[in-house]
Amino acid sequence: MKKFNKYSKMIALVVALAAIMFACVEDDFDTPPIALKPIGEILTIQEVKDIYYDYATYNALVEEDAYIFALDASVYATVTMDNETDNSYKFFYIQDNTGGLPVRQDVSGGMYIGDSVRVYLKDLVIMKYNGTVFQLNNMNNLGVNSDTSVVKQGVNNKRAPEEATIAEIMASNESQEYYYGRLVKLVDVQFISTDTAETFAYPSTLTDESRMLQDTANNQLIVRTSGYATFAGASVPVGSGSIIGVIGKYNDNLQLVIRKLSEVEMGNERFDVTGSGGGGGGGGPVDPVTSFTADFEEFVEYDDIEIEGWQNEIEAGDRAWHAKVYDDNAYAQLNAYNSTDPENIGWLITPPIDFDVNSNEVLSFRSAVAFYTHESFELLISLDYDGENYLTATWTPLSATIAGSGDSDYAWVSSGDIDLSSYTGVGYVAFKYTGDADQSETGTFVIDDVVLEDKP
Q1: Would you tell me how many other CB atoms lie within 10 Å of the CB of residue 272?
Q2: How many angstroms separate the Cα of 17 from the Cα of each of 4, 30, 131, 356?
Q3: Tell me, what's the pLDDT at 130?
Q4: Which residue, among 131, 125, 119, has the nearest Cα to 63 in the 3D structure?
Q5: Distance between CA atoms of 344 and 12, rounded to whole angstroms?
Q6: 3-state DSSP call for residue 152?
Q7: pTM score, whole prediction
């Protein structure tokens, strides 16, 4: 019996020591508690966007263009664009079944295409930056902290792109808002340039660039690439095919942002362009006219000018002639203010004019300048423009009275009657703006009430 007690005591001692040792090991490697981010009210991306217009509905605070979430709320979505190719530095895009949204990060990386995420919205802001409304950020404009505001729910849940056409994307304000932030696929498209030496951007100078995409009807869309993108120096394909990207926005212009070069598949033969849509123009073949009036009253703020028969062409940069509204009057304007493009050149071209019908054709319009920095405007006429290749046509200056350095901001100046009666055949008139932010040539030029009439 004593022998049994002896071994029992030894066993008890070993068990006790083991328990102490395991307890020590557990204490040494104790896992800190996980800080679970609150969930709160569940919002869709469209509801998050709606807050920008109606922040009171969700009890948010407002500070200038930044709408601060004061309510516990979260949004569930999938990452559709990340920073892997550096074409979206410190931004990732998310999308759910209601829409897409860019999220600015405090650091680059950490989010990947296909990640399912929950973004906790309290104390974040939805803000306006360089025309990019609907951007999630923090209150100091330093970006969302992924550790404190984002929870990954899963990985490799990639969304399929939504097939769309350029015409659908650019159709109207409502359409443009629908596509903004969404992952899309465009088919039967090609880049306008056939220069095999042209690259997506300029990696040697780290300069961003815009390249124009067109469809068979010559509807056009900007493809914007960062100079930091890993494929910035790749040649722009000269064939036709398909392209996948996210629809972003800078200032007034929608643009396609490529995720990776493998999603640009343009190995087919180039197609012939049958329309004359231009960068938001009317599109389609146009019969010559003998008169017209353009007062731009059908447009709302920031609409690209789209008038049947007119062409709104972007020669350089990513800005087209667009509408502005002041004191219930809509007009067309263009400037290079805050542009990151090496140059901005935009053309607004009239329908073809038949000069052989009337004998006293007269053109007139009003113009104005604002924040004058340079002579930005040219009024031009061409008699050999074919309606498609405006850059190869011969353009001659027309004499007119236009607003300039001596005029007050937005003070209207009448052009007077511009006599076109000496011209014969078919011709076009163009309103051309040129600006260069790098050279501080950022002044605004404005036109309104463009009229062509037979005036005996």
Answers
A1: 6
A2: 20, 20, 68, 110
A3: 56
A4: 125
A5: 86
A6: strand
A7: 0.57
> Domain limits at 186?
162-268
Residues counted in the chain: 456
Residues sharing a CB contact under 8 Å with residue 110, sequence separation 6 or more, in sequence order: 146
CATH of the domain at 222: 2.40.50
Contacts with 90 (C-beta within 8 Å, 6 or more apart), sequence order:
83, 104, 105, 106, 107, 108, 143
Mark whether 385 and 297 lie in a shared domain: yes
pLDDT 10s digits, 160-206: 999 999 999 988 767 788 999 999 999 999 998 888 888 998 888 88
Supply the pLDDT for residue 406.
92
Number of structural domains (the chain) is 3
Q: Is residue 93 part of a domain?
A: yes
- Do 81 and 148 sit in the same domain of this protein? yes
Query: Is residue 450 a contact partner of residue 293, using CB atoms and an 8 Å limit?
Result: yes
Q: Would 1 be classed as within a structural domain?
A: no
pLDDT at 55: 55
As given in the structure block, the two tokens for residue 434 are: 């040129």
DSSP-assigned states of every residue in 69-116: --S-EEEEEEEEE-STTSSSTTEEEEEETTEEEEEEBSSS-S--TT-E
What average pLDDT is seen over the chain? 84
Cα–Cα dist 53/171, whole Å = 22
Residues 413 and 327 in one domain: yes
Regions in the chain scoring below 50 on pLDDT? 1-35, 56-64, 275-284
